[in-house]
Amino acid sequence: MVLIIINIIFCIAFLAFAYVNLNDVDAALWVTIYMFAAVCCGLAAYGLYYPVIYLAAIAFYLVYAIILFFAKDGVRDWIVKYNRPSIVETMQAEKPYIEKTREFFGLLIVAGALAIDYFAL
To answer: How far apart are CA 31 and CA 22, in angstroms?
Structure first.
């Protein structure tokens, strides 16, 4: 029962994440990423579970997160070069590191949600 509630919450959250990414420059990529996770969580809430798909998606999200971590003006630069200033002051990505850092943490959230389902189901 708890896992069903968690999956419903994740599904709704990922749908909202996809919605706020509709006006982004790379909207096709991010809406797809969040919608895929929303569908996986929604299906898991109904008892439909596909472990191979979960593993493939988790692998993709983590590899992409690693790429964003080491990219120019990515998470590593945010930590080392820019001394971790706030990335949530405004919704506009005014600094070069904000977009990649937010995307990195979004990927970790998605991978974590799918990992919860993979290991719990």
So the answer is: 7
Residues (pLDDT < 70) of the chain are: 91-93
Total-model pTM: 0.91
- pLDDT at residue 121, as a whole number: 80
**Residue spans of alpha helices (H) in 1-121:** 2-20, 27-45, 51-70, 75-80, 96-120
Contact (CB, 8 A) for 72 and 81: no
The answer to whether 40 and 57 are in contact (CB under 8 A) is: yes
Other beta carbons within 10 Å of 9 = 13
Q: Which residues contact 6 (CB under 8 A, 6 or more apart)?
A: 116
CA distance 76 to 71: 8
Residue 91 has what pLDDT?
64
13-18 LR contacts (CB < 8 Å, sep 24+): 14/38, 14/41, 14/110, 14/113, 17/106
